[in-house]
Amino acid sequence: MEYRSLGAGGVAGPDNPPTTVSVVGLGTWAFGGDAWGPADDRESEETIRAALDAGVTLIDTAPAYGDGRAEEVVGRAIAGRRHEVVIATKMGIQRRGPHHVVDLSPDAVRREIEDSLRRLNVDTIDLYQVHWPDKNTPIEETVEALARVHEAGRFRFLGVANFKPALMERVRAVFPLTCLQLHYSLLNRTPESHTLPYCAKHGLGALGYGSLAAGILTGKYRELPRFAPGDARDEFYRFFREPVWSAAGGLLETLRAIARERERPVSQVAINWSRRPPMADSSVAALARGGVTCALVGARTAAQARENAAAGEWKLSSEELSRIERAWREQIAPRA
Ligand SMILES: NC(=O)c1ccc[n+]([C@@H]2O[C@H](COP(=O)([O-])OP(=O)(O)OC[C@H]3O[C@@H](n4cnc5c(N)ncnc54)[C@H](OP(=O)(O)O)[C@@H]3O)[C@@H](O)[C@H]2O)c1
Hints:
The protein contains 12 helices and 12 strands. The protein has 336 residues and is of the alpha/beta class. It has one domain: TIM Barrel. The strands form 3 sheets. Strands 3-4-5-8-9-10-11-12 form an 8-stranded parallel barrel, surrounded by 5 helices. A two-stranded antiparallel sheet has the order 1-2. Helix 1 links the parallel strand 3 and strand 4. Helix 1 packs across helix 2 and helix 8 packs across helix 9. The longest helix is centred in the last third of the chain and has 19 residues. The protein is globular. The model has no long low-confidence stretch (mean pLDDT 92). Bound molecules: NADP nicotinamide-adenine-dinucleotide phosphate. NADP nicotinamide-adenine-dinucleotide phosphate binds next to strand 12 and helix 11. The site of NADP nicotinamide-adenine-dinucleotide phosphate has 28 residues, from strand 12 and helix 11.
């Protein structure tokens, strides 16, 4: 497994050493059991332990995943192994009845972190992330409240998710920001224009989610799947529909060919594309061609977790990256 710095722009110091993370992290959205079909807690815990055994150190979760269930699963799975894990959780999306609401108020900050610490059964959270921007709360109020919670030792590094550069500027004016979590894969390259170059310029780590585009980029779907109403694979990612479905099929021919030549699964080709290293020169154009620091990949079983973690053992060559680039321009770009 390869390891990289979580991000240089944090609050590291003698009591808070900078943290490195595996280039493949484990996402736990599906463990909530409320957005990706049913989940089996015992299988979810085995999946987490299999990822740790395979060298994964970053586990990403959130109170929003199953209204706290995924955090509890993580807490049980890492019992006795706390020192091996960089725990990343979030605040700001809460279940209210049947709906999820965004609430970044200072009260929510103070309440949510105590709930997460209890569910995770830890004294401190390594990476605490603001889950989603909130139109109703000035971000400075949220970050001031987070700074007080940080002073009390409740978390080590601050992250944000789904923030644009202008909002990250406002966060950074109040408190050191370590990293951004963002949607990034071969089916969503929008962050390359502004967001990834902004992260690279300011030393922020970039944690990419949806690297497998909710499973499509594993190549396992030969026919368009049907999901139950409300399933995140259909409603959040929106790739299981035309014209993206057919375009992804065209791109997958190239990913499959590389996978065959390398004797590796297609999933690892997709993961390794998203976490490709930044270019050596630091012009904005070159930075935009680099990928994320860590690909956060969801897994439902121990076998999937092991397969995905093994992407951290090898890299795509520049010739393979060029072939993927050509296929992307032919298949995806015209329909993006
Ligand atoms: N901050 C945010 O707003 C946000 C948003 C989305 C996600 N995230 C985080 O990022 C993580 C990763 O993203 P994601 O889970 O949404 O999407 P993803 O990584 O693109 O897809 C994960 C899903 O693909 C399938 N899969 C994974 N590995 C596989 C393999 N080797 N072979 C076959 N199928 C495989 C599994 O589902 P099936 O077995 O059911 O097919 C798994 O749940 C999340 O779990 C969450 O922690 C954050």
